[in-house]
Write a structure and sequence with these properties.
By secondary structure, the chain is α/β, with parallel strands linked by helices. 42% of the residues lie in helices and 12% in strands. The strands form three sheets. The chain has a four-stranded parallel sheet. A three-stranded parallel sheet has the order 7-8-9, with no helix packed on it. The longest helix has 21 residues, at 28-48. The protein is globular.
Length: 247
């Protein structure tokens, strides 16, 4: 029998039951994607649990703050790795399928990521309709992978992300106050509810972390503190919208 994995609130067997209930509500292409994500998260959790030091009541790995505000170029992980682009900040604001491999075999990609100017922490999906434990585990994997990369010598910017308000307790680490963080807004304009939840989380992040600077990926959202933010757009998406082709 698979043992219970702390710091999660349920055994893996009970967790799988909730995951399958959720997956049954999805269309097959999305269901297949979620199953792949869960498999990758399970492999990573088994690989690294107990490897990194933890702190706080939740016993999560602790991220080191980054104070370098000099960020001028962002490149998605899959393109950077394919074309050996290292003179840029690498991001994971892309489809999960394009970077789940780093969770399955993180040591394979450490040498490359160490050579990059910097890396923004991974962004495994946390859909707001997912069960709370599922969103929690995905957030744990994001933070733990970020800590794992820092431990491996990668220059990393913490990725601050949230889902529903019940995620705030683990989404804004106090030790990252007054440092540089990264925030993504891709997809939040799809519905009024998504935009509202993003704005609420953004306000909480500002109050809790008082960031020195924000690396902002995605469209500007009304009410942001633009004076401390550097904005980067999804250039590939913009090219597709404009009818351009990659050279």
């Amino acid at each position: 029998m698979t043992p219970t994995i702390i710091p999660f609130s349920s055994s893996y067997e009970d967790y799988l039951i909730e995951v399958e209930k959720y997956i049954l509500t999805l269309r097959e292409p999305i269901a297949k994607k979620i199953r792949r994500i869960e498999k990758s998260m399970r492999i990573f959790t088994e690989k690294v649990y107990g490897y990194l030091p933890t702190a706080g009541e939740m016993k999560w790995p602790v991220l080191e703050p980054n104070y370098n505000v000099d960020v001028t170029r962002l490149v998605p992980f899959h393109e950077a790795y394919s074309y050996d682009i290292t003179d840029a900040v690498i991001y994971f604001y892309i489809d999960d399928s394009l970077f789940l491999r780093i969770f399955v075999n993180p040591d394979k990609y450490l040498p490359f990521l160490r050579r990059c100017d910097a890396v923004i922490g991974p962004d495994v999906s946390q859909y707001t309709d997912m069960p709370a434990e599922m969103r929690y585990r995905h957030a744990w994997c994001n933070t733990t992978m970020s800590a794992y990369l820092q431990e491996g010598g990668v220059n990393l910017y913490p990725n601050i992300t949230w889902s529903r308000s019940d995620s705030y307790s683990y989404s804004f680490p106090q030790n990252l106050r007054n440092s540089v963080i990264a925030i993504n807004s891709n997809g939040v304009h799809k519905s009024d509810l998504s935009l509202y939840r993003w704005k609420c989380g953004y306000r909480m992040a500002m109050m809790t972390l008082s960031p020195l600077h924000i690396i902002r990926f995605g469209k500007l959202v009304d009410g942001e503190n633009t004076s401390i933010s550097s904005y980067f757009s999804n250039e590939r998406l913009n090219m597709l919208r404009n009818g351009s082709k990659r050279k």
